[in-house]
Each structure stands twice: as structure tokens, then as C-alpha cells.
Amino acid sequence: MTEQSQKELGKTLWNIADQIAAESEKLAALKTHKRALMQQLFP
């Protein structure tokens, strides 16, 4: 594996990790929203 391909692979892995982090934040926000809606529905 060349140095260039290692750099590309590293960049790709960092991008995937960033996407996972962003999706995790979205999921947490949606869970909070769901909880609020359920509380309104069933006080």
C-alpha cells in the first residue's frame, strides 16, 4: 500500500467517523423529540 493510498484511506475513515457522529447526534435529538411528543400524547 502506497503512502498516498494510506492517506486516502485515513481520510475516508475520518469522514465515515464524522458521519457516524453526526447521525448519532441526530438520533439523540429525535429520541428527545419523541419523548416530548409521547409526554404530550400521554400526560
- Shape descriptor: rod-shaped
The percentage helix is over 70%
In what range is the share of β-strand residues?
A: under 5%
Strand/helix succession: H
Which structural category fits the helices and strands? mainly alpha
How far apart the termini lie comes to: 60 Å
The number of strands is: 0
In words, what does this structure look like?
This protein has one helix at residues 3-41. It is mainly alpha-helical and 43 residues long. The termini are far apart.
What's the SSE blueprint?
Layout: H1 3-41
What's the short story on this structure?
This protein has 43 residues and is mainly alpha-helical. It is built from 1 helix and no strands. The longest helix has 39 residues, at 3-41.
Keywords:
43 residues; mainly alpha
